[in-house]
Batch of 3 targets.
Target 1
Amino acid sequence: MAELKEPKTEYDLRSRLGFRLSRLSKIIQDRLEKKLAKYGLSRLQWCVLSGIGLEDITTPSEIADHVGITRQAISRLLLQMRKKGWIEQEFDPKDGRSRRLVITESGRALLEACHPIVNENQTYFTNKLNAEELRMLDITLSKLVEGESTRVDSY
């Protein structure tokens, strides 16, 4: 009796969704990191500055959730940023026991200088798509992350 063999399945790493999304993410991140590095700023530091300064997210735990990293990672990041003089923690005037994050003058100047760079990076990639493709990409990405954890703990 002849042994049955399973049909050979083709595997092409470069056509896999995870590989392609990871590669695209890395390309977008690396391009932005290179431009922000001229200001001594990392992509994650930008996420914190913009979260505080543009989106009014003012507690460390909210920032950690917003960026998608652990509380430990955000604590280290905030410490670095405080040492550089970009942010401070102050008592919340609404609740004297809790603290909130605020941007210093030098942090605000950095935010204003880098905001156009971040926008340009976004535009560079979105201009490769027409309006309908961009809309479909947004819908598709939303579907793919629906119900998944927002944490990206590898940072």
Target 2
Amino acid sequence: MNKTLKRFLVALSAVLIALPVFTGCSKDGGKKIVIKGSTTVLPITQKAAEEYRKTNKVSITIEGSGSGNGIKALLDGTCDIANASREMKEKEVKKAQEKGLQTKEIACALDMIIPVVNPKNPVKNLSLTQLKGIYDGSISNWKQVGGSDAKIVVISRDTSSGTYEVWEGKVMHKTDVRKDALLQASNGAVASAVAGNDKAIGYIGFGYLNSTVKAVKVNNVEPIIANGKSGKYPISRKLYMYINEKSISEDAKKFIDYILGNEGQKLVKEAGFIPINM
């Protein structure tokens, strides 16, 4: 696949993620909350919004286009809440300051980034060193890590993804992912690609685990809630919601308080993630 076609498919995937929702800005007036950003945090906000609107008359629009795009939207004033599966970068913080914004970071859940393979793949455990080798290309055949004699097909995320940024920092240590990696724009797209290829490996947020893929232990640590909450699992992280305290509406504040409260944190767990306040 040439680079132009690959970029087109990544962009198309990002657009498809956003199709079920409406775009807009809360500055239009009325009770409206606009949320943009991380596809990892997307299921949490979707589930919370569905329940919240049963007892609150407010319009909540949600777009999953990647953490970087969500933070950019917050800085541009086109959303109330930016979902992010990583912390704001120094350059983003600086840009916010230059614009006179007062950004606030709110941790809403805990997550684990989990390597996944096709259920037919016999590999059950990989070390961080082996994962780095697979993704930088120095390990190219499954037999090098205890699997079958077959070329490894690497599935990765695009660079606007917070999940990619955490993987790059915790696994790759800023080393480039191999050039022939197949890039996907969402956790769901990665899971689907791995499910359809018995030679593939990818990585997804804990909430996206399903029976179509097989979770791989990392350094012999199983990706279960207890290990994620304790920090024992080596690729753990917090999930965030960013706001501009100078302009956030009362409705957006109330929605965030709902997610951080007991009912919202139960929904975090139901969405497949790890509650941060329970």
Target 3
Amino acid sequence: MTHPLVPKVVAALARDKNVLLYGPPGTGKTWLVSEVVAFLDSRDSSGGQPTLRTGATDQHFGTAPGSQIGEIPNNIAVEWVTFHQSYSYEEFIVGRRPKPEANGIVLEPHFGLLMTIAVQIQQSDGPDACLLIIDELNRANTGQVFGEFITLLDPDYRSTVAGVPNGRAVRVRLPGIAYENGLSEPIRMLRGGGVYNLPEDWTFPEHVYVLATMNSVDKAALPLDSALTRRFHRIEMRPSLQVLATHLSVNMDELEAKAVKVRATEQPSSSLTPEETAILLLDRINAHIGADMGEDFEIGHTLLWSLVATEPADRWRELARVWDRALLPQILERYAGRSDALTELLKAEAGSLTTVAFRERRLIGAETPFSGAIELVPLLSLQDAEAIAVLQNVAV
């Protein structure tokens, strides 16, 4: 069954050409990209296109799209690139590379990835369209990488709009490239080794689509260029308790009522199942993080996704493994140097049931905590009953 977000992304691509999926880690951005690719590949020859509902849906899923809607051709190629700090304009648009010749070395012009895509779909033997997937968009200096092509992301400035020739299309002369008699010097293609002479009045094709992802928490990432971001239809990917609950066959209304009773000590937390504990863990952790740091720093539900594929009898142990290897490292990263907040989140105060795994480290003979630090014990190293008790108590 197609995920309900997939046709919305495809419709936004058809209309706006560029879509940005953003949110905290573990919210399924890369997974959704793969589902979109599978959806495009599975279309029949009729080329039917999904539509994006207007009104509240537009408000929730991104910026208002353009008024003219084209169709995404069936014959579409897919390219995938991951941006990083050293990714450059020369790799993405055009640059020069050394080439040996009889009299020494010459610098030969080469198309980068985006220009190669654009030129290929304008050739008779190439695909009719291309979907460029950019993972980790904000890890490169995007203003520098895109250069003047930020303008050409706007569908209003491409060669056609909804298949109709566009008189407003921006003509492109590449910087650093020599032109003569209406053509550029030969430029080497990134794929296949051929060369191409770019017309002096070349315009960017309509059917180049960009689907990008961005981690909103990444501290090593650079801020996105505002001119770039306003050319993307933005779709926020949020942590979803409901999605996790659906896949774990947990009724959220019943769980809410049960959680209220547990917190009011009307029933012990030991009554919680591993599935219920996983959902309540994510809920409590994100409530603390969201109130303290903002929603961008919350933890995604897919970090707990392995429980879905785990046999029910093994889910307590799998939940302990997920805690040790995925959840706790994310929590520690966010609360580095903030032991008081970490103590509150982990319920690591003296006398708490969680102190078998998390306890304040104290100096021998001292009454005050030693730098407020917390000793951490992997749950998988504890007895099963101890690990389960820790998870249940942190969850509520």
